What we know:
By secondary structure, the chain is mostly beta strands. It has helices spanning 70-81, 113-118; strands at 6-10, 16-20, 26-27, 32-33, 36-41, 48-54, 57-65, 85-88, 94-96, 99-101, 104-106. The protein has a domain at 6-103: PH-domain like.
Amino acid sequence: MHRSGLNPLTGGAGHAVQVHAYPEAIIGRFGTSATALALQADPNGRDFRLVLLAGTRPLMTLGPYAEEDVVAEWRALGAAAGLPLTVRFSNGSVMALYRQVGRLQVGPLWPRSRHKLLTSRRPRFLTRRKTGCMPARPHVFREQEIIARLDV
């Protein structure tokens, strides 16, 4: 972190982007805080731009970025600022790609069925061990007695 309180990030094609280290960066004359970071295609169709949004209204446009660099810069800037990643279409509509609560991305729920599956069959401490299996040709002992007795 620089002594000015700004975190410098290097952008694609030599652009430098600075992000405030505060939890909510305030942008603009009226103190509007950004709510999302959007990826938008350039109208010419060659480059991409990153747009800071307040709702669906653009606050600041960053770029242009090359096709090879834009996704890495978008994700890095979104993670540094804690903003949800969105895509902004040419008609102005915005679509969120990930569900997010604050800075935390919410993923799919995974049921904890492994405990349910093995509760009636094996003890809990044995769940990581392999179960035994019979060999292809098991040894068969056909003696009269398996244990030899010594006559004393």
